[in-house]
Amino acid sequence: MKASGRRWDLFCKVVDNFGDIGICWRLARQLVAERDACVRLWVDDLGPLARIRPGVERERATQDVDGVEVRHWTDGAPSAGDVPGEIVVEAFGCDPPASFVAAMAVQPRPPAWFNLEYLSAEDWVESHHLLPSPHPRLPLVKRFFFPGFTPRTGGLLREADLLAARDAFADDGAQQLAFEQALGIPPRRESELRVSLFSYANAQASALLEAWVASARPVTTLVPDGCLATEIATWAKAPLGVGSIVERGNLRVMRVPFLPQWQYDRLLWSCDVNVVRGEDSFVRAQWAARPMVWHIYPQPDDAHWPKLEAFLRRHTAGFDAVTATATTALFRAWNGRGDVRSAWEDAEASIDSWRAGARDWAGTLAARSDLMTQLASVAETLL
User: Fold this and answer.
1) Of 8, 12, 203, 205, which residue is 20 to 30 A from 229 by alpha carbon distance?
2) What order of strands is seen across the sheet that includes strand 251-256?
3) pTM check: above 0.85
């Protein structure tokens, strides 16, 4: 770890497989790269991190990866010798160990302590952002940090060079070709629509695939390994291994490898439409400035629906009426409410205005400060 910069402890329990750790890993790396921070990332399951950052050793207790000290968060860790950093972030209410919290309380200056909350577009988030929560027994105060889409929230994760890298990729045909060839993606057909498909298990998958089979234009969908494995195999009538391609009607389905984060960004930039899930890929698809469809993480009692509807209201507010209606219907259908085939046909018919709306949305978000910068700035005011 670096000897300069603030010392940060980030705690992550893997719940949403790649979303939780994906967010924490991007935050940790950005803190190191842009704030010269000393970051210790505590993770209870290193397997998903090893998928998005090859080279991580799944069973190792401590390892340095990209300047981040990665610690395997087990029942025996942290130990009594682990002095808390100046800033402590628990991701999504995962609660650091009681012994670590007790150690925070006896520091000469208590750490700035945050609960990094899940992303939501709901109105109530603004009034809850940065609210303090005093510890019931110890002289500590935790603050709730809400990512969000408005100036009164904590923003979205965005590295300083992300948008420049995106635009450079879009303007460089050789870079695009090299990326596609490395994955074995066949050349585009005339007027082809290319779609990335990253989703939770989804009963609507076969209907969407059949919509593409019958499409008036060629469609190639790129499906990361492990995603929709059962649904794709059922539709194709055979398992689809990495690199395999199935063609039916106007649809070509290709299974691509599960990609490290930096390569997944480029997959999003390479596609005309991106179907994404959870939170990390959801945010990255918005920075791709391409049409997107979100499979929100399903919750009991349909608690996820208000979150989906709140996002749709904000996301489509600048779209023309026809495109907003079609996009909203497709989001709903993909999440189980509506006819996904007809919804896709309506959205695809508005693809040009959908593209324009996605670019404008990304530009609006980019005009606001990013999450890491805001979080670090608030922390400085507390130290």
Assistant:
1) 12
2) 245-248, 251-256, 219-224, 193-197, 273-277, 292-295
3) yes
